[in-house]
């Protein structure tokens, strides 16, 4: 290494590394390879249009001349030198290698041990670098907005908060829950005591166990097993004076909740595919090739218990807010013997547990009808055989009714055959309309007390003469052929009640003489009209979900008839053969599909296809078991069918036609097609114009 001095104006020092020739003479293959590559790189040139465009080296060369201009170095370290002259920096921290810039320091014998390729005779230059601490750089700061009560400024902060809350124009705030995450609060006493564990063992012989069980009281219980005539015996042991564990568990609300959740989980393992089908999670593909309309019923599961075997299903109601919940009433059907009228049940089932009901209500008389409230979905109205009406809250786990009807003010002792919740604006009150066998129409209002407030609306009278409607020809028969009317009662039986879908204060009542009375809640003890629709009792009357002026009726004269308001004759008549129609309902998803039930089976009708016979008829259970109830689910893809043995079958509708996009237009075209053979009636229907919502 050699050194030279620059001009006096620009003092500099030049350091020369080993030349390329020296590197080529080295014994190291690595160094020789690098030297050869550098020489080849220097010989390459890139001429473009006669101009040398060879790019320069991006990094300083490893071999060659490296110059360090000390004027720039001194300008950068001038403040440090000034501080040194002012003796602000300790003398021990001064770099002694730069005390004299004019004289080159002597580094003879110094070898850079980090570079083994250097020869022993070559000198290296060392520069001392002084590292000092820089100022703190704040990347993120989140100041606290909470002051401890022990702090000095706690009193001042509390006074500011009090002034803010009591200022005149302060915003109205309320301490309530919001859709924000809970703030993680940390108290001072977060440490808990250490839990000590200990293993304890004991030895018990067979003689000890024998003597222990002989000293305990033995209790044996028999439990009926569903779908089996055998009984299961369970033996429990208890010590004298010790509380029965079964009674304690029955009083525990947490135990019942845990048991219900566990039963749901177990039932989900067995009925998983059926529950998926009930929820309609995999709807049928309208583009598949093998589409056939068979109107088939597939039984998913059956609701049944040991206590309700032999008790006919009298009524059923799906919860309007939760389509998984259904209330089923078990009471009487037809001419039930007096021995079987001892008690009744109302069970609230959930599709998540098709084995055991989640609510059980027992009554001392048969139950005739149930209905959920649309305004308050957790309220369930129950009609009894002895004329009473009760309202239950299914969210309450106790057996106490929310309100019952009182017989002190207006007693009713005849069976309640049907009831409906009033839905029109009545100042936010929950009211129920109930019809009884003696012809009384009662309105019950839910009050704060434990009794329902009764109010009589109307008592039906038998129709005298020839009323307007089906069968009234206007001509009188000969005197010798006229039937002799012997009326044992002046008041007909009210079998069903329906509230108008648009005019909520207007309701229709079907009687046992085949007539329909329509009345208004605002006009008590008055009739708005009477129409003779059947020759036997009317069991059901329901409006179409797609038209507020089209409704159907089913009766014991073996027929289902579809009517239009303001027309005294039916536009369509569906005959089931030689069996009374117990119930009939419109499909909530297809405007032309109707489901009905007779003693022998379930019929599915499609007005687009034919009206002479049903599209399909399915028999459920044994041939000797009569079917009593049919109801569509809220989604319209399943049916609930009840029988006289206390079983409720949940069936899926398979191979059904796809719902049309324009429901009312499809219903209108189907009805017009049925009236082709009655041109006069068809003309009258067309003149009525649009009948939909």
From TrEMBL:
<keyword id="KW-0677">Repeat</keyword>
<dbReference type="InterPro" id="IPR050687">
    <property type="entry name" value="Dynein_IC"/>
</dbReference>
<keyword id="KW-0206">Cytoskeleton</keyword>
<dbReference type="GO" id="GO:0003341">
    <property type="term" value="P:cilium movement"/>
</dbReference>
<dbReference type="GO" id="GO:0045504">
    <property type="term" value="F:dynein heavy chain binding"/>
</dbReference>
<feature type="repeat" description="WD">
    <location>
        <begin position="531"/>
        <end position="563"/>
    </location>
</feature>
<protein>
    <recommendedName>
        <fullName>Dynein axonemal intermediate chain 4</fullName>
    </recommendedName>
</protein>
<feature type="region of interest" description="Disordered">
    <location>
        <begin position="159"/>
        <end position="181"/>
    </location>
</feature>
<dbReference type="GO" id="GO:0120293">
    <property type="term" value="C:dynein axonemal particle"/>
</dbReference>
<dbReference type="Pfam" id="PF00400">
    <property type="entry name" value="WD40"/>
</dbReference>
<keyword id="KW-0966">Cell projection</keyword>
<dbReference type="InterPro" id="IPR001680">
    <property type="entry name" value="WD40_rpt"/>
</dbReference>
<dbReference type="InterPro" id="IPR036322">
    <property type="entry name" value="WD40_repeat_dom_sf"/>
</dbReference>
<feature type="region of interest" description="Disordered">
    <location>
        <begin position="464"/>
        <end position="484"/>
    </location>
</feature>
<keyword id="KW-0282">Flagellum</keyword>
<keyword id="KW-0963">Cytoplasm</keyword>
<dbReference type="GO" id="GO:0045503">
    <property type="term" value="F:dynein light chain binding"/>
</dbReference>
<dbReference type="GO" id="GO:0005858">
    <property type="term" value="C:axonemal dynein complex"/>
</dbReference>
<keyword id="KW-0969">Cilium</keyword>
<keyword id="KW-0853">WD repeat</keyword>
<dbReference type="InterPro" id="IPR015943">
    <property type="entry name" value="WD40/YVTN_repeat-like_dom_sf"/>
</dbReference>
């Amino acid at each position: 290494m050699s050194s030279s001095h620059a001009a006096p104006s620009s003092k500099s020092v030049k350091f020369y590394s080993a030349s390329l020739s020296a590197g080529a003479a080295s014994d190291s293959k690595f160094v020789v390879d690098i030297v050869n590559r550098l020489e080849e790189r220097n010989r390459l040139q890139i001429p473009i249009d006669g101009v040398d465009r060879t790019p320069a080296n991006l990094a300083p060369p490893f071999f060659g001349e490296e110059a360090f201009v000390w004027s720039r170095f001194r300008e950068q370290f001038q403040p440090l030198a000034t501080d040194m002259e002012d003796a602000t920096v300790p003398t021990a921290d001064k770099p002694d290698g730069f005390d004299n810039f004019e004289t080159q320091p002597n580094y003879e014998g110094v070898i850079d041990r980090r570079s083994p390729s250097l020869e022993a005779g070559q000198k290296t230059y060392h520069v001392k670098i002084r590292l000092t601490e820089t100022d703190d750089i704040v990347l993120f700061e989140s100041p606290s907005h909470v002051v401890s009560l022990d702090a000095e400024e706690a009193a001042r902060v509390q006074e500011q908060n009090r002034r803010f809350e009591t200022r005149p124009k302060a915003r109205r705030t309320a301490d309530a829950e919001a859709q924000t995450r809970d703030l993680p609060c940390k108290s001072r006493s977060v440490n808990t005591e250490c839990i000590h564990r200990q293993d304890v063992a004991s030895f018990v012989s067979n003689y000890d166990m024998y003597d222990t069980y002989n000293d305990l009281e033995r209790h044996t219980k028999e439990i009926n097993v569903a779908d089996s005539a055998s009984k299961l015996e369970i033996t429990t042991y208890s010590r004298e004076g010790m509380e029965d564990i079964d009674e304690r568990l029955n009083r525990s609300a947490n135990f019942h909740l845990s048991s219900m959740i566990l039963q749901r989980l177990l039932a989900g393992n067995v009925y998983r595919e059926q529950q998926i089908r009930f929820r309609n999670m995999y709807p049928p593909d309208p583009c598949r090739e093998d589409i056939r309309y068979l109107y088939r019923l597939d039984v998913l599961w059956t609701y049944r218990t040991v206590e309700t075997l032999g008790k006919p299903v009298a009524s059923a109601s799906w919860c309007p807010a939760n389509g998984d919940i259904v209330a089923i009433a078990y009471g009487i059907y037809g001419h039930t013997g007096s021995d079987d009228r001892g008690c009744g049940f109302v069970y609230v089932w959930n599709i998540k547990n098709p084995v055991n009901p989640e609510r059980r209500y027992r009554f001392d008389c048969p139950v005739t009808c149930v209905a959920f409230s649309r305004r308050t979905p957790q309220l369930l109205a129950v009609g009894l055989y002895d004329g009473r009406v009760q309202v239950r809250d299914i969210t309450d786990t106790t057996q106490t009714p929310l309100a019952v009807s009182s017989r002190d003010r207006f007693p009713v002792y005849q069976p309640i055959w049907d009831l409906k919740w009033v839905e029109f604006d009545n100042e936010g009150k929950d009211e129920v309309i109930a019809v009884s066998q003696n012809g009384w129409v009662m309105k019950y209002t839910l009050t704060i007390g434990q009794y329902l407030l009764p109010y009589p609306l109307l008592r039906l009278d038998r129709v005298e003469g020839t009323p307007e409607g089906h069968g009234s020809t206007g001509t009188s028969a000969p005197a010798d052929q006229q039937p002799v009317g012997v009326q044992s009662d002046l008041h007909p039986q009210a079998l069903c009640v329906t509230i108008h879908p648009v005019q909520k204060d207007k309701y229709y009542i079907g009687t046992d003489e085949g007539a329909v009375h329509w009345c208004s809640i605002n006009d008590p003890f008055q009739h708005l009209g009477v129409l003779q629709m059947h020759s036997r009792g009317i069991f059901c009357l329901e409006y179409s979900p797609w038209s507020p002026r089209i409704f159907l009726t089913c009766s014991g004269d073996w027929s289902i008839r579809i009517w239009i308001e303001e027309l005294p004759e039916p536009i369509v008549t569906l005959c089931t053969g030689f069996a009374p129609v117990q119930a009939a309902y419109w499909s909530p998803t297809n405007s032309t599909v109707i489901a009905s039930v007779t003693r022998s089976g379930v019929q599915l009708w499609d007005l687009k296809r034919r009206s002479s016979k049903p599209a399909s008829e399915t028999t459920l259970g044994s041939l000797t078991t009569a079917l009593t109830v049919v109801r569509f689910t809220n989604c319209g893809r399943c049916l609930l069918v009840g029988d006289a043995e206390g079983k409720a079958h949940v069936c899926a509708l398979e191979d059904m036609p796809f719902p049309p996009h324009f429901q009312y237009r499809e219903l209108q075209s189907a009805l017009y097609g049925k009236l082709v053979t009655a041109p006069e009636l068809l003309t009258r229907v067309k003149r009525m114009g649009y009948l939909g919502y």
